[in-house]
Amino acid sequence: MQRSQQQTKLAGSYSGSLAVDHALAGVGGAIVSTVAFHPLDMVKIRLQVDVSARGEAVLGRAVRATKHVIRTDGIRGLYRGLGANLAGNCASWGLYFAWYTWIKEQMAGGHTPETASGISTLSPAQHLFSGALAGALTQCMANPLWVVKTRICTTSPKDPSSYRGLMDGLWQIATKEGIPGLYKGLAPGLLGVAHGGIQFMAYEEMKRRFKNSRPDNATGEFSMLQYALMSSSSKVLALSITYPSQVLRSRLQQQPKSTLTSLPSVATATAATGAPRMVSYTGLLDAVSKMIRAEGIPGFYKGFGPALVRVLPGNIITFVVYERISGYFRGHATHTSI
Question: What's the rounded Cα separation, in Å, for the pair 184 and 175?
């Protein structure tokens, strides 16, 4: 009887809002994973914007890109853009979990959409819609941060036009390119909002199935290994489907053509240096057309290997930390649910 009540009792909140609880848990997970894996994120972005001809080994390009950063800027160069990355990831994960939880609450008729053991009460279709809509709203709010992060990670601090930091980047883009500059890459970003929907639909369903297969687990808490398996499996599925939109977004968010041609590291880039060879695009359709002609379909999956290496451990850490903090909030809830 006690186990049954635990499974059907709705979750309470620690802060007074379940959405805020999940947002805080998401921020905690984002901080840990971003600090740990930022160098891989930088290499991934540099490979995404690199227009090198097809056929070059991905591992070789990744190694050359890493060596180029260290040779040009030292070990500290691998953490260039960390501030912008932290701001972007914390804002994105915090906003995403807040929106996701709030949308689920609306779909549940204003009631709490999960049990006291953290299992969602909604259907897979509702998870897909909630995740996609939350992703779209988050993308619109956080896009300026990602533009700055991409530009910082693809330039050296020695370049005269590089940004000194997050606020400097936001200011320069706003004054030189206006609001449109802050929202470059938004279109492919919105095309990729299905990523969150697919990932969370799969993740929530795996949690439900794991829970149903272990009715003796009264608390509903999973082991770190189970969280790792569920989060990584759902991430690989979502990333495989939506990765091309991330490459397109990075291509559109790179420095404008007038700036690119003035950068010594880009103007003299060769396959041996490891510097990304970038071109300018007028928009989404222009980027798709040029990439297909010059690089083929594999061009849309450039950086996929480093992305997997980067996001899988980072995703596992994010979700484990997120679930642990969420579990703490549920266990110490001071506000009852309806």
Answer: 15
For 5-8, which contacts have Cβ atoms below 8 Å and span 24 or more sequence positions?
6/115, 6/116, 6/117, 6/218, 6/219, 6/220, 7/115, 7/117, 7/119, 7/211, 7/218, 7/220, 8/115
Residues with Cβ < 8 Å from 68, sequence gap 6 or more? 273, 274, 275
Average pLDDT of the segment spanning 2-19: 67
AA letter at 192? G
d(CA 87, CA 23): 14
Q: What is the DSSP letter of 155?
A: S
Question: Per residue in 199-213, pLDDT tens?
Answer: 999 999 999 888 888
Q: Residue 37 contacts by C-beta under 8 Å, 6 or more apart in sequence?
A: 310, 313, 314
| Those residues with Cβ within 8 angstroms of residue 154's Cβ, 6 or more apart along the chain or in another chain | 45, 46, 49, 254, 255, 276, 278
The C-alpha R_g of the chain, in whole angstroms, comes to: 21
**pTM of the full structure:** 0.74
Q: Which two tokens stand for residue 322?
A: 């997120």
> What separation in angstroms does the CA of 267 have from each of 153, 163, 260?
17, 18, 8
Q: Which residues contact 91 (CB under 8 A, 6 or more apart)?
A: 141, 142, 145
Kindly report the length of the chain.
338
Q: Which residue has the higher pLDDT, 331 or 9?
A: 331
324: pLDDT confidence band, cut at 50, 70 and 90? very high
Cβ partners under 8 Å of residue 13, min gap 6: 20, 21, 329, 333, 334, 335, 337
Question: In percent, how much of the chain has pLDDT > 90?
Answer: 32
Task: Dump strand ranges (E) for 138-295.
Answer: none
Instruction: Find the helix packing angle between 82-107 and 304-331, rounded to 10°.
Output: 60
In whole angstroms, what is the distance from residue 247 CA to residue 269 CA? Answer: 20
CA distance 61 to 223: 37
**Structural domains present in the chain:** 16-326 (1.50.40.10)
